[in-house]
């Protein structure tokens, strides 16, 4: 009997691995992209290089806010069927403080971290440890119809009021009922906070005072910027549809040739120059976002990282996936096929990549200067309050911005009070 068992055991060891070992399942929640083939190919390559590992992917909703809800639900439940996940740049502090993400210091050395741009690395650090590896970086940019501005003898706008004036002039002259002046992201979700932060900072305001931990949305400069967006950007040069736009809808409008100016992340360049999606190929200019007169233009720092769940039973395997996805080679592939900007510094001098994505080098400075949204474990509730406030303030021409901002500030201060209490000695 014992001999039989030994023979059986030897036979099992000799069987090919696919039959012998049950594959280890690595469950990953990843972002939606307009080039889904990219993730499928990447996963196939990873599986080929890592025999015995099978990646089960779940594609999250496009909206960062909905993605956050899906992920935090799983993490709150300590779901062990989740190993790795993409994270928006605003989540690592929250996830780390909740104990949901694994500190990665034992895998991700300081020397390796040094190969990445500083801002995304800083966003992934919490209380001295690192919780994610930056996959791509985002910063708000302004796209414009080069051909239309040239036709009407205009240089790219130096500040927001000039942009509005230019749009009005072009709209009046073109008399195209399908053309609008501006397309951005004004739906009630995280993208709205990114857009509004850029206007507010460009007017010398702030969302909140990070040192004193008090809200700043009720301050005059912040309110002025909100009023300007409502009265001029939305009511004068956009259609009301913009109040329901996330990134995909807003870039689609621009790529169809139906907007003069467009605010988006770097990937919109590829969309606007993609023969399958665009009618404005070669007609598009791209530049840092303007400010208000006398102010300094500000671009929100965005971007995505990959983290490992603290409840994963296979963190080593998960790390192999993270390292693969954020490698030099993979980031280059992502930049080629989606136009997303790499987080590895070396790629900004890679001749092959620069030949394909020529704007990359000139935008590096904008990425480096992009302003992070405040890094705090309570970012999500604060953002939620701001999303509701901005959305209500922009929706109606006569909205009461003084009152609404005061209410939002009061709610934000309640959340910030908690932070102040926990920070107190
Ligand atoms: C992009 C950015 C992200 C931001 C989101 C808002 O995905 O990378 O940081 O929160 O847009 O819509």
Describe this structure in words.
The structure is a single chain. This protein is an alpha+beta fold. The chain folds into two domains: 22-138 and 301-369, 3-Layer(aba) Sandwich (D-Maltodextrin-Binding Protein, domain 2); 153-298 and 378-423, D-Maltodextrin-Binding Protein, domain 2 (3-Layer(aba) Sandwich), CATH 3.40.190.10. 47% of the residues lie in helices and 15% in strands. The protein has 19 helices and 14 strands. The longest helix is centred in the last third of the chain and has 23 residues, at 401-423. The radius of gyration is 24 Å and the shape is globular. The protein starts with a helix and ends with a helix. Alpha-D-glucopyranose binds next to helix 10 and strand 13.
């Amino acid at each position: 009997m014992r001999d039989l068992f030994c023979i059986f055991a030897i036979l099992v060891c000799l069987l090919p691995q696919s039959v012998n070992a049950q594959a280890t399942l690595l469950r990953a929640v990843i972002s939606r992209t307009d080039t889904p083939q990219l993730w499928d190919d990447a996963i196939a390559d990873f599986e080929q290089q890592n025999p015995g590992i099978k990646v089960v992917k779940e594609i999250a909703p496009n909206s960062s806010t909905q993605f956050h809800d899906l992920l935090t639900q799983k993490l709150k439940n300590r779901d062990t069927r989740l190993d790795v996940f993409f994270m928006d740049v605003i989540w690592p502090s929250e996830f780390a403080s909740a104990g949901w993400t694994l500190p990665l210091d034992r895998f991700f050395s300081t020397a390796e971290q040094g190969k990445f741009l500083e801002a995304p690395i800083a966003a992934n650090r919490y209380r001295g440890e690192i919780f994610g590896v930056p996959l791509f970086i985002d910063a708000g940019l302004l796209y414009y119809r080069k051909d239309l501005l040239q036709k009407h003898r205009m240089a790219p706008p130096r500040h927001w009021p000039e942009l509005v004036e230019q749009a009005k002039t072009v709209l009046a002259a073109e008399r195209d009922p399908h053309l609008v002046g501006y397309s951005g992201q004004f739906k009630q979700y995280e993208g709205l906070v990114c857009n509004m932060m850029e206007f507010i900072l460009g007017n010398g305001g702030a969302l909140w005072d990070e040192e004193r931990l008090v809200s700043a949305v009720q301050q005059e400069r912040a309110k002025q910027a909100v009023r300007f967006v409502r009265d001029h950007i939305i009511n004068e040069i956009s259609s009301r549809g913009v109040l329901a736009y996330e990134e995909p809808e807003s870039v689609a409008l621009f790529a169809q040739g139906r907007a003069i100016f467009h605010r988006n992340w770097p990937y919109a360049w590829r969309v606007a120059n993609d023969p399958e999606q665009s009618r404005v190929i070669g007609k598009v200019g791209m530049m840092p976002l303007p400010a208000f007169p006398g102010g300094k233009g500000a671009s929100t720092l965005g971007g995505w990282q990959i983290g490992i769940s603290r409840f994963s039973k296979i963190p080593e395997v998960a790390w192999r996936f993270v390292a693969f996805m954020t490698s030099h080679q993979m980031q280059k592939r992502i930049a080629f096929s989606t136009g997303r900007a790499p987080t590895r510094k070396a790629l900004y001098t890679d001749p092959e990549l620069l030949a394909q994505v020529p704007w990359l080098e000139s935008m590096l400075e904008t990425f480096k200067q992009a302003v992070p949204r405040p890094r705090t474990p309570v970012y999500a509730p604060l953002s939620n309050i701001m999303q509701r406030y901005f959305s209500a303030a922009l929706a109606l021409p006569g909205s009461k911005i003084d009152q609404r901002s005061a209410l939002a500030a009061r709610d934000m201060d309640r959340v910030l009070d908690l932070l102040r209490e926990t920070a107190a000695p």
